[in-house]
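S.,

Sequence below, as promised.
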Amino acid sequence: MLCAFLPASDSRAAGKLIAALLTCDLPRYREAHKSFVKALVLKGYDQSNIEVITQTPNPDAISWSNSIRKFNAIGADVIVAYGTSATLAALRETSDIPVVYADVYGPVETGVAKSMDSSGRNIAGISSKVPLVTLIKTAMELKPIRSLGVVCATREEGSLLQLREARRIAAQSGMTLVETNLTGLAGLDAALASLFAARVDCIYVSECTAGSRGFEKIVHRAGELKIPVISQMPGAALKGAVLSLEADPVEQGQVAADYVARILAGKKAFQLPVATPKRVDLIVNLKAAKSLDIHVPFPVLSAATRVLK
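The prediction came back faster than expected:
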């Protein structure tokens, strides 16, 4: 367990304990939590009256639930959850402690919130959902996509939601979808082999844990066959995706900190709406495109908020 100590300016927050749970040890969650910590400091909280403890357990349902039970046992005043799986575990295991979440793809669709106006329960936070249709349609401007490979993990709610969205978009666009379900990194080679055998034109990597951990391998193996990789995961373009559409983890942490501060000041979680990401980047990786012999048309470059050269 990692402990950090932070300030609090509101006397009602004196002696409060904030417990944070990361779905798994991924850069996106670490970056969001680092931003969360900094944002609390900027709000004037000090180490004399706020304690923040953090857990990053093994990425499985039992471990997430056990972490929340520990938070319950030590009397946390607010639980902060990063990622859909950690958030759903918090909902299952606690009802009295307010929960603030960040980086949840589709809070309403995954059952975290009842509506975008209010969760309808003791939870509030920020969505990381960005339009998958924009990513796929932009990728189709780079090269024709008749067959789209999808790397997903159906046991992870965020990844499953993205798969369902990809199915709908493929049906509307006349594409064939080739799905591969990852239960862990050990199955990555077989998953890629199935996509390559199906001769997919492009590979979309959903936000699944194994896909994130094996992302650079996916890019490398796909690159050998001149197959572009696209994703919505933060950091995907920097790891070699030719195109990505990413919500900013820094903003995710900042909004979570704002919501925690409001709750500590007396606001009820159900009174807070689901926040949506304002800082979203459409990133084109020109270096990756060149290695794949893909010409990036000017309209795509114009639409991009960042271009990696």
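Residues 2-129+248-279 form a domain with the Rossmann fold fold (CATH 3.40.50.2300).

Coffee later?
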